[in-house]
Amino acid sequence: MSVLAMQRVDGVAVAVPKQDVDSAVVAAMREELAAGVGPGGGGLVLDLSGTRYVDSAGLDMIFRLGDRLATRRSALVLVIPDGSQLERLAAIVALPQAVTVKGTLDDALDAVHEMLGTERSGPRGGRPRAAPCSSGTAPRATP
Known about the structure:
- This protein has 143 residues and is of the alpha/beta class.
- It is 36% helix and 20% strand.
- The chain has five helices and six strands.
- The protein has helices at residues 26-37, 56-71, 85-92, 95-98, 105-116, and strands at residues 4-9, 12-17, 43-47, 75-79, 100-102, 130-132.
- It has a six-stranded mixed sheet, with helices on both faces.
């Protein structure tokens, strides 16, 4: 069973956890993220806007994923809503110092494209064009 909803938005892999990010799902999540980004890299947005809880195993996975993508000259950007409990946790563990964090999906997509030196093909603030990722996971409708 898939633990992520994966889609491509403006050429960027966007992963949305279907449940809390904890030790019970981290191994499966790591595999799905690797399949969704693929060997060519590119950018990855991990949208945590609907996530209520991330434990230490989840935080470790995010830190390591950021390091791994950086060595491949790729980009990881997290979506963590401003004022959320998760934003407070991220600040405590210094996550924004290691990985780019944005408050909205639009801002995260802009950040990935800026980091990669590419242009967005979809409208900002509108409905970005989405397509399934190579993992075959069905796309999630974007707000």
